[in-house]
Structures are given as structure tokens and as C-alpha cells.
Amino acid sequence: MDTFQRRRYPRVNITLPVEYKSEGKTKRVLAKTVGEGGLMLNLNEHIPLEAKLNLSLFLPNMSQSSTALYNLKAKGKVVWTQDEREEFYCGISFIEIADNDRGILSAFISKYREI
Asked: How far apart, in whole angstroms, are the C-alpha atoms of residue 41 and residue 16?
């Protein structure tokens, strides 16, 4: 069986804080991987497939002169879920992201792929 995954966008394994809004509630969670096409979240609750989320992904600022986090906004859709005991994981595909934010995300991923 071929277990190689073909991804349209490369991903980096990095833990980043994320806020998501769904059904009027805001939750803070962690992203475990991130790519230009989406991210994987580590949750404490199950989110159904196809659920739409408003996301705020907090990236380290790549400017040497600032320690503030960059708040990248996007809309995403749950494309897969995985339940493991008390933890839940889900894959989010970006369905809307501003061109400027996509450029910042691309630069961030390129930087961290080199490390």
C-alpha cells in the first residue's frame, strides 16, 4: 500500500496558537502543522466534517524589530477529523484568505522549511 501523501502545498510541523469561531463561540487551540492550503488543529472537542470556521492564526512576526504576533485571518472548512482518546484532530482547508495574508503565510512557511 502506498502511504505517500501528495500535497498541493508543503506544510511545516510547528505549533502555533489559533482562535476559531463557530456557532457564535470563540475557542483557542493549537495548530500542529500549517501550509498555504490549510492547517491541522489539536482540539478538545469534535468538530463535524464540512463545518465552516473563522480563523485567526497567530504567526511569529518575521521582523527583527518586533516581537508582536501577526494575526492572520482566514475562513476554513473541516475536511477530515481524527479522534484519539480525549484528543481530537482536524484538517482545515482554507476557503478564503486575503492575498496579502497568503503572501505572509507563504513567506513564513518558506522560512521555517529552511530551519
From this structure: 9
What is the predicted pLDDT for the residue at 40? 95
Per-residue pLDDT at 2 exceeds 80: no
- 101 within 8 A of 72, measured Cβ to Cβ: yes
Look at the alpha carbons of 6, 32, 45, 96 in this order and tell me if their dihedral is positive or negative.
negative
Going through 1-115 in order, the beta strands assigned E by DSSP cover 11-22, 25-35, 38-43, 52-60, 69-84, 87-97
Beta-carbon neighbour count of residue 72 at 10 Å? 21
Closest by CA to 39, choosing from 25, 58, 23, 26, is 58
Q: For residue range 13-22, what is the model confidence (pLDDT) as tens digits? A: 889 999 999 8
The answer to whether residues 20 and 55 touch, using CB atoms and an 8 Å cutoff, is yes
Q: Does the structure show a pLDDT above 50 at 114?
A: yes
